[in-house]
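I have been asked to look over a protein record a colleague put together. This is what I was given:
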Amino acid sequence: NYLRFNVFRPEQPEAVLSALERINQSMPLVIDLRGNNGGSVAATLEIISRFTSQTLLAFSRVSRTDREAFFIEPPGPAYTGNTVILVDEMSISAAENFAAIMQKTGLATVMGVQTPGQLLWGEGFMLDDGSIAVIPVAQIIYPDESNLEGLGVTPDIVVPLDKQQLHQGTDSQLQRAIDFLSAR
């Protein structure tokens, strides 16, 4: 099974959830977050909730004045297949958060290359010219007290993209994920 998406749609993860429901829940799964530019915390937690059968602390939002815990609440039976998440230097924000939570909770193996560490909680403000400014207002801190800002997600298995193979039609990172899952 292979699932790729490039954004965590704010409050609307239905397309991803629908795709997860259509696949065999016990078969191996590759979730490809390479080039995913992030999105919604709510969508992130909603998707992760399909991979666990127990309530888990995902992270805390820590600002100068408060700390708020965010939990993963499973809605029903969990996806039980082995899961690999592919990441790269363009997997940012919610994509990094998703990969980190899945990795830290043991729900998936992360594979690829280091993400850039662009994960802060931001508030958006509409400007007079119609553009939006996003101002960081808090950090995301995991249960082990770590955070990703400026550090990124370190893959469990580092697999650089072989551009020569890609030009020849072989995605070396995806192939390594498939090989890894086939061996389990």
